[in-house]
Amino acid sequence: MSRTVFILLLLLCLQLPSFAAARRAYTHNSEYLRDHISDLISNWNGARLEATSADYATLNLRNGTRPIKFDQKELRKRNGRYLYMNMRVKEKESRYGFLILPDNAGFIRFPVVADGNFHIYNIDLADENGRIRRPESIVFSDSGKSQTIHLLGFSLVGNPSGRSDVRILDVGTVNHELYSGVPNQLYLLLHNTGGKASDNLELESLKLPFRVVESNRFRRKLPAIAPQARKTVLIDITPRTPGSGKLSAEVADKEGLSKFQGTLKAVNPPLIPGGSAPGMPAPAPLPAVCNVAAFYTPRYTTADSWKNIREYTPGRRPVLGYYDVSKPETIDWQIKQLTENGINTLFIDWYEKQGKVVHPEWFDAYRKAQHRKLIRWAVAWDNSSAVNSADEFRRIAALWIAGYFRREGYLHVNGKPVVLIKQPLRLDRNLSGQLGVCLAEARKQAQAAGLPGICFIAGLTPFPNQKNVDHVREIKFLLANGFDFVTDVVHTSAEKPGDVPGVLDFEEVADLNTRMWAQRRRTAAANYIPFVTTGCNDYPLRRDSAEIIENRTPEEFGKLCKSAARFIAVNKAPFFLLGHLNDFDRGASIEPNAEDGFRYYEALRDEVMTPGTRPPQNYGPTALR
Question: pTM surpassing 0.85?
Fold first, then answer.
């Protein structure tokens, strides 16, 4: 071999590592990306992935809701905690994507930003115990239409990856009551879904539909946001004049811009009769055509109990602020707002843990509230399934009899104190079929204490995804075993094929519930109490597997309340029962809050108030400042 040929071969060998490095650096090449993604997929289910650009791969979906199956061997081999995607979706084509878990274990939902720009997704595959969930398939869209998605990255990674990507999730006022001349704060809820911190974040613009006082200087520099973190930024605002219209905000760092558009309204402070006197003005209960009851959770007693709302859904902040139900003044304000909008009865969530009542603070605060006589209340036994013996049932019945039934304001129907038992069928199984015997013994205990007995209400929980929701056999069984009334305790909905997993439509839920009342009525006669859902969106608790009822509006809620009022007028039920007023963590709530104000209370009020009534003006503590 000549010296020249030897030198050329040596130089070629020296260059081979650099060629390999160039290949590794070529990760955004569409052909390489296509092959890399294809290695993870075992069945495209009609979708097609193509290398159509120098930078990104193009995924063509015939039907956005068809699942694309993962290769499980490849997932186990790569074993990453996060599914990283850099993805672009056209405007208005999708709202959600899903990772479907095997063995009917549920799903992981992720919001899709459909604005025509590339966005970073780092989907955490770990559950609350840190175990990695390997998805069976991925659904890129909640739309059944064909669509095109561009991908700059798609892989399993150990840590959040990619650039920073800050999104404005929500903008609103801390206090719903936005009055001219009264200081308030605007919140911006931001989320960095990327793999790097956003260190140079700035408020590019903020446009309000009214003028603000000169002291409001909107700072341009915003605090840094770590990867995967959320941050609520507060901005002081004091409207100079009333005004309503569009609100727009833009935040940006060196990686991109995020926009938000909404509406905002500032009004003059209300003229409150007696408003110059210290403290809350006395309630003026609304004359109504029927009784309205509602579930109430007493768990909001500390700053920590509001932690999820502060972090994930600040728009749910109550008009009363992050209140403490152990304070009598909180109860008085709630009584005022409830009774002035037609609600006169509360079923208080009640349960024990290790033999002690959990969250007893409400009961003590109620006894000290100045206006307690205006509201009735009763126990809603929330964890009856924890009871496994007749002796334990007798002990709890004795506790109710001695501790609650003779208290001021306790609800009586037909002269008897009321207890609502949730999940009674499970309780019967725990008691080996002796629930009817236990109810009869509890009534004897009450009679021995000088009471006429106990009125028991059974709270049904619909079976998951059950299409036939009449529960004829179950209702007959409960009434035959000693329950005086039957009602429901959660919304009923049967998902249909093609529905978005975990996402329901309020109008469909309301329609199903009104049809269900008629079915229940045929079985239970006058012993059925209609249940009105207050919605659901438990994202603060379940995050990516939350159940969501979309498109709830005050108008649709008002229609449902109107139907319930008509139902009990005809069927002579003692009241109709609303879902939770204030379960903010589960999104089952209509209590006045920063996002909705009093709109849901007023929708109810307008359907149940006596004709010709002039309702009281709604306001919260801010109006008295």
Answer: yes
